[in-house]
């Protein structure tokens, strides 16, 4: 008797539990399988598989979070990476200079900057040909003291290279009309007139390291130097040379490359429609701290740019009637705000929720479509049997 009562109680418990079943089953004999249902099932399976793969790729990928904060890295230096080709200017007659509002100046920069001479078709002139005329310098007495051609001073008494002759003339404030008059320049193969190199191109590539304050850098014709606290470009050698400032900026970036960085001046080409053009780029720099998923931190910058150009009349500029200089000028201002970009992985619960939504959503929509197709087919069959459809 006790056993029976116990069994009855168990049956009653399970019977009560069955009332909570949200998925009632039908008997196999009452299930109807159709070709339309099979087609919808196959299509639904393909869609679910494609969406699952997309969700898995999204889960395995890296998500980006951005945050705006104050820039506290002002004491660090700013690296400017450039790769620029001037299609109508020879390398021997252009200089790279940088200056900023704090008074810092870099004149005729040659460290970390390479100037590559190119032929008119863009192929590089081999170093062997460039240095062919200068190979004789190895035979000269290293203790020699050559003439500065009247430009000697108390500090500069000997000029053993073409560059030393140029420096001596700058110190005197004298212009150079031709390098052909100097033995040192002829020996080093630098005595060519600019007109003899007018078919050459010049690629300027490398890095400028400047203080992290507003400033500018420029690439201009003529050797640059300081005279009486003024920044001067010697254009005397280039007076009869057409200064065509057409150029292509292959790369211009402020700081190391990071995945989200967009440099608006990359692969930018400016075609000068007239000679002696001053091309100006005004950039607004926003510092960026990029935190990679492996905890590595990279400091870089993003920037926006506007540009302007104007014609420079060298005669008016010499008389002080017009300001400016032919060349490419990049002026930059630095924002006090910084963007912090952080890479992170998405959570597994987010992935699981997405997968459930895909399976449930596709299954539900497929069921609705299957029900609509099946009921429509049944209604059509009944009408056909009653002769209502011809």
Question: Can you put this structure into words, describing what you see?
Answer:
With 390 residues, this protein is α+β, with helices and mostly antiparallel strands. It is 27% helix and 30% strand. It contains 7 helices and 15 strands. The strands form 3 sheets. Strands 1, 3, 4, 7, 12, 13, 14 and 15 form an 8-stranded mixed beta sheet that branches. A 5-stranded antiparallel beta sheet has the order 5-6-2-10-11, with no helix packed on it. A hairpin with a 5-residue loop joins strand 12 (277-291) and strand 13. Helix 2 (35-60) packs antiparallel against helix 7 (348-385). The model is unreliable at 1-7 and 128-136 (pLDDT under 50).
Count the helices. How many?
7
How many E-type strands? 15
Rg, alpha carbons: 38 Å
Label the structural class.
Answer: alpha+beta
The general outline is: elongated
Pattern of helices and strands: HHEEEEEHHHEEEEEEEEHEEH
On the 0 to 100 scale, the average pLDDT is 81
**Poorly predicted ranges:** 1-7, 128-136
Main sheet attributes: strand count, strand direction, barrel closure? 8 strands, mixed
Oligomer: single chain
Beta-strand percentage?
Answer: 25-35%
- Percent helix range: 25-40%
Distance between the termini: 70 Å
């Amino acid at each position: 008797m006790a056993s029976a009562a116990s069994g009855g109680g168990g049956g009653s418990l399970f019977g009560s539990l069955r009332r909570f079943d949200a998925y009632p089953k039908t008997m196999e004999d009452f299930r109807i399988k159709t070709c339309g249902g099979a087609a919808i099932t196959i299509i639904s399976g393909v869609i679910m598989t494609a969406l699952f793969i997309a969700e898995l790729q999204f889960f395995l990928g890296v998500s980006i979070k951005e945050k705006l904060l104050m820039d506290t890295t002002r004491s660090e230096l700013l690296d400017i990476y450039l790769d620029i080709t001037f299609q109508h200017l020879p390398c021997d007659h252009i200089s790279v200079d940088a200056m900023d509002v704090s008074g810092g100046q870099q004149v005729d920069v040659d460290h970390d900057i390479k100037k590559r001479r190119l032929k008119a078709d863009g192929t590089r002139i081999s170093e062997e040909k460039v240095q062919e005329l200068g190979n004789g310098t190895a035979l000269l007495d290293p203790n020699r003291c050559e003439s500065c051609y009247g430009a000697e001073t108390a500090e500069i008494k000997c000029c053993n290279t073409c560059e030393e002759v140029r420096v001596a003339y700058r110190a005197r404030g004298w212009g150079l009309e031709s390098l052909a008059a100097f033995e040192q320049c002829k020996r080093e193969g630098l005595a060519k007139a600019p007109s003899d190199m007018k078919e050459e191109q010049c690629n300027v590539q490398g890095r400028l390291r400047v203080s992290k304050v507003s400033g500018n850098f420029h690439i201009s014709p003529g050797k640059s130097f300081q005279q009486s606290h003024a920044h001067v470009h010697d254009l005397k050698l280039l007076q009869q040379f057409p200064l065509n400032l057409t150029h292509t900026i292959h790369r211009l970036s402020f700081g190391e490359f990071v995945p989200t960085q967009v440099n608006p001046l990359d692969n930018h080409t400016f075609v000068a429609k007239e000679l002696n053009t001053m091309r100006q780029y005004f950039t607004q720099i926003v510092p960026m701290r990029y935190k990679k998923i492996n905890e590595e931190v990279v400091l870089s910058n993003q920037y926006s740019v506007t540009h302007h150009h104007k014609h420079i009349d060298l005669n008016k500029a010499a008389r002080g009637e017009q300001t400016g200089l032919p060349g490419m000028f990049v002026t930059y201002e630095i924002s006090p705000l910084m963007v912090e970009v952080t890479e992170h992985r998405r959570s597994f619960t987010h992935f699981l929720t997405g997968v459930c939504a895909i399976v449930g959503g596709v299954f539900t929509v497929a069921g609705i479509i299957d029900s609509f197709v099946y009921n429509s087919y049944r209604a059509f069959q009944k009408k056909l049997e009653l002769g209502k459809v011809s």
